[in-house]
Design a protein that fits this description.
mainly alpha
Length: about 60
């Protein structure tokens, strides 16, 4: 009988923990969504439009 009570308490504690984590995640998501990020910095003059790795390679080696 004690074993069943212990198992029930563990399951109940796990369920409460899961519910708490979901509530905290929802609160965190709402806080992130409400935050206004600043505008991106302007591109410095003289830089090409595409600064990715492919922009620097004009020929391909195969």
């Amino acid at each position: 009988m004690e074993t069943l009570a212990l198992i029930a308490v563990i399951i109940l504690a796990t369920g409460i923990g899961l519910r708490l984590i979901r509530l905290l995640n929802a609160q965190h998501d709402a806080r992130i969504e409400a935050y206004r990020f600043s505008d991106p910095l302007p591109r410095p003059p003289g830089l090409p439009d595409d600064t990715g790795r492919r922009a620097h390679h004009t020929h391909t080696h195969r």
